[in-house]
Write a structure and sequence with these properties.
The protein is built from 13 helices and 19 strands. By secondary structure, the protein is α+β, with helices and mostly antiparallel strands. It is globular and about 80 Å long.
């Protein structure tokens, strides 16, 4: 008997950085803007930050800023500052009609006409300050070589800013992303999203952000969850959920996160952000696993989680937004770190596999693994390998297959990594424990490339 292989959560990003020991354990990126500060008085203009805690959390005004980079001249691009011209594009994402469709169209028309609710600024790419070309792999992983060349050769930028009511149904976010995509499609532009530190083609943003759902336009990939290292520790930091201003909600932080806990707790913080987008957070909230992970029915029977929220001093992130600190008791944090390192399938448990099926799978993996290892070493990304662990001896021995996240490949061909599952049967081993694996015992692999491509077997 071998356990059914759990799949790894892929929606939460821990951004890549270069901060010594902690960066080696989990990727980091310290938030800092890369483009010019908005002109004074414009929506989104930076404000001074004081040490006074923010007011009690409510749905405040939402704010969206996104840039369209093009090869047009500033004069050619300036025609898209004409509000009448922008109004002509609303039908591409807000066609109107009864119910919510009509409400979105009405809100979009009002926002585009109101120079207090929206601004459209054209500037040179040099003044805007695009991300450096050396960061292409990091900020533009989904763009091919030709698209990256186009983006970094951009000569002008149209910055669209929108401010409006927060909370569902998230008209401000829908209108901001929808109109930015529509303009980019018209001018052959590429979208630069500073909050997420991502450069994307319009089609990618449209598929994720211009959503028909009536209740919420929130998408996990519309924010960023990153690890900000503590100054006094090389293995600990705080997780930040940034970009919630788009929904009129506060940004969130979770302090004293150990590097090995970060991927799992980042999933938890992302789930909290998803909830914060549709309801005002009280000082204390009891959440069930079904509240946090509605798309994972296998978690529905888990124990409730008590979460507390307190105003925090804003030192990193959007200076125009508030920050709430998330508090969990130690036992809950430990449980989350162990359980959320994997996604439990609906038929979780032991899954029977005949010896002939296993040998066939092992034979295929042995043929393909050298190529996967070479690709991983060249391109980077995350590599997980499926390994059999044995509990007991003799006829009563049980074999449990678990995923191991590869960290390094030794010259003698052995992989070093950490256990990516919490064992169900193997005693004395836990999620996050370091392990060393010989290639002949690997019976599966999952390679997640920086481009977003995933290659897996089985």
């Amino acid at each position: 008997m071998r356990s059914f292989p759990a799949t790894r959560a892929t929606r939460t990003r821990i951004l890549v950085g270069s901060l010594s020991t902690l960066a080696a354990a989990v990727g980091l990126w310290i938030w800092q803007p890369w483009h010019a500060t908005p002109s004074p008085g414009a929506p989104g203009a930076a404000t001074s930050v004081t040490s006074a805690p923010p007011a009690a959390p409510t749905f405040r005004d939402a704010f969206v800023e996104i840039a369209v980079a093009t090869s047009l001249s500033e004069e050619e691009l300036a025609v898209w500052q004409d509000r009448r011209k922008l109004l002509s594009l609303l039908g591409t994402f807000a066609p109107g009609g009864p119910g919510e469709a009509g409400a979105l169209r009405t809100a979009a028309e009002a926002m585009v006409r109101d120079d207090q609710a929206s601004t459209f600024e054209v500037m040179s790419a040099e003044r805007f300050i695009l991300p450096p070309v050396d960061d292409a792999e990091l900020v533009a992983p989904q763009l091919d070589a030709a698209q990256r060349a186009r983006f970094f050769a951009s000569t002008s930028v149209l910055v669209l800013r929108f401010r409006g009511s927060g909370g569902p149904p998230h008209h401000t976010a829908r209108i901001g992303f929808g109109l930015a995509v529509s303009v980019a499609e018209q001018v052959g532009g590429i979208l630069d999203d500073e909050v997420r530190r991502r450069v994307e083609m319009p089609a990618a943003v449209k598929a994720r952000s211009v959503l028909p759902d009536v209740r919420s336009a929130f998408h996990d990939d519309s924010i960023v969850v990153e690890l900000d290292p503590d100054e006094d520790s090389s293995t600990r930091g705080r997780l930040l959920g940034l970009g919630m201003k788009r929904y009129g909600a506060p940004d969130l932080e979770l302090r004293d996160v150990e590097a090995h806990e970060a991927p799992a707790l980042a999933r938890f913080l992302t789930a909290l952000c998803r909830i914060a987008a549709v309801r005002v957070l009280p000082e204390s909230l009891t959440l069930t696993p079904a509240d946090l992970f509605p798309d994972e029915p296998a978690r529905a029977g888990g124990a409730p989680i008590q979460v507390r929220f307190t105003p925090a001093e804003l030192a990193t992130g959007n200076p125009d937004n508030e920050l709430l600190s998330v508090s969990l008791d130690l036992s809950t944090r430990t449980r989350l770190a162990r359980e959320l390192g994997l996604v439990v399938p609906e038929d979780a448990g032991l899954h029977a596999e005949s010896e002939s099926e296993f040998e066939a799978r092992l034979s295929r993996v042995r043929r393909e693994l050298p190529g996967m290892l070479a690709r991983w070493r060249q391109a980077g990304g995350a590599l997980f390998v499926l390994v059999d662990f044995t509990s007991g001896a003799g006829p009563d021995a049980e074999v449990e297959s678990m995923w191991v996240e590869a960290r390094s490949l030794e010259a003698r061909g052995r992989l070093q990594g950490t256990l990516a599952n919490e064992p169900a049967h193997v005693l004395g081993t836990h999620y996050g424990d370091p392990v060393e694996v010989a290639q002949p015992v690997i019976s599966g692999y999952r390679l997640e490339l920086p481009s977003g491509e995933r290659v897996a077997f089985p």
